[in-house]
Write a structure and sequence with these properties.
Layout (H helix, E strand, L loop, with lengths): L1 H31 L2 H9 L3 H15 L5 H15 L3 H14 L4 H13 L3 H14 L4 H13 L3 H14 L4 H15 L4
Helix pairs in contact: 2-3, 4-5, 4-6, 5-6, 6-7, 7-8, 8-9, 9-10
Length: 189
């Protein structure tokens, strides 16, 4: 009887542990699909926590809900990774034609245009992406870069501050703000 009692206690403890762990994992999965909750967590995160939340947001924003759109997005990313901006633009144009409400298609095509120094076209795609997803701090950062390149530091600084308000630990945006701050706000004597 004592052995059975010990085994039963072990089984109950293992079951409680399994249920607790499963519930925690399910809650984490649910969180990774809740953009507003992830954005709230990102705004209040430490730099280390921000890395994982950033990854979850980017994964969430890359979900199109369509196998053909996902394929076009993947092909566009692969072409960009291979340095073939023209092929990327072809795939991503097909994507934006196929799924005009999918913000990440516009955002990624803007990256391809940016790489080809077609800043007007990149800015137009970023603005369209931000109309669909105004919280995409990467798109806001990209718009800031374009403003900076075309000699509009005030607009660039404003875009960077907007991106930092969403993702306060974004290293490139922080560097850009620090780089432009003296120019925009003036230098201390």
């Amino acid at each position: 009887m004592g052995i059975a009692s010990n085994n039963l206690k072990g089984i109950v403890a293992a079951t409680v542990l399994l249920v607790t762990f499963s519930t925690s994992c399910l809650a984490q999965q649910a969180d990774s699909r809740d953009e507003s909750q992830l954005l709230e967590q990102l705004a209040q995160s430490t730099p280390d926590q921000a890395i994982g939340i950033d990854r979850q947001l980017k994964a969430l924003w890359s979900l199109s809900g369509s196998a053909s759109a996902d394929l076009l997005l993947e092909r566009g990313r692969d072409a960009l990774d291979d340095g073939d901006a023209m092929a990327a633009i072809e795939h991503l144009t097909a994507l934006t034609d196929h799924a005009p409400g999918f913000a990440e298609g516009w955002h990624l095509r803007a990256s391809a245009f940016f790489g080809m120094e077609r800043f007007g076209m990149a800015a137009a795609d970023l603005e369209h992406a931000l109309t669909l997803n105004p919280n995409n701090y990467e798109a806001i950062y990209g718009l800031g870069l374009i403003f900076e390149i075309v000699g509009q530091p005030d607009k660039a600084f404003e875009a960077y501050q907007r991106a930092l308000a969403i993702h306060p630990h974004h290293e490139e945006v922080t560097n850009a703000v620090n780089r432009l701050k003296p120019q925009v706000e003036g230098s201390a004597l």
